[in-house]
Write the structure tokens for this entry.
Amino acid sequence: MMELRLDNWVPVNVPNSKKGTYVVVRSKMHRGILAFKYAPLVVEVVDTYFPELSGLTIYLYATYSALGRYHVNAYPYNLALNPVDLKREPNEYVVHVIAHELTHLIQYNYDIFVSLGQEYFPLLYAKRIPKGEEACDLYTYARHPDLVVPGRGGYIGIPENADPEEVHELALEAIRLRNEEGVRNYIKWFKERLKEVV
Ligand SMILES: [Zn+2]
């Protein structure tokens, strides 16, 4: 059994948000880079693109098996980032990864955020966000064009020459089709249209 060292778990708060968003680093591995590079970036992504999550305290862990992860434990607002692999990624893609994980956080806590979310993003919160990775990417792209990174993309890849604004609009339209017209294969619809945006 591993020795549990409590001194490793003293939280590092990153209180650099006017809106009161906190990120508490809960990893004993790669604490420095998580606290000084990624925690402020998580705060920035929350306050810029996820106003409905502003003011939350988010626990940040390290993961080494994916670029990012959302996980549920006793505390609902957790995410994990890969401090090794993300170092090789451009900032805009790191922002996408953080946003993708925050979208998972909303998928799993929809009931908590639905009324506040509807004030900011009526279309995204009109219906429960479906589970799944592709849905998570789609809802991330529908949130803001900055979260669309041409030539990259986790589960739904974005063509290299795509215009982020156009992809963003397409994602919104796919969600509208799902919400208002009962289109069940809205993700397939989006992926097919995506091939035509270049
Ligand atoms: Zn995911």
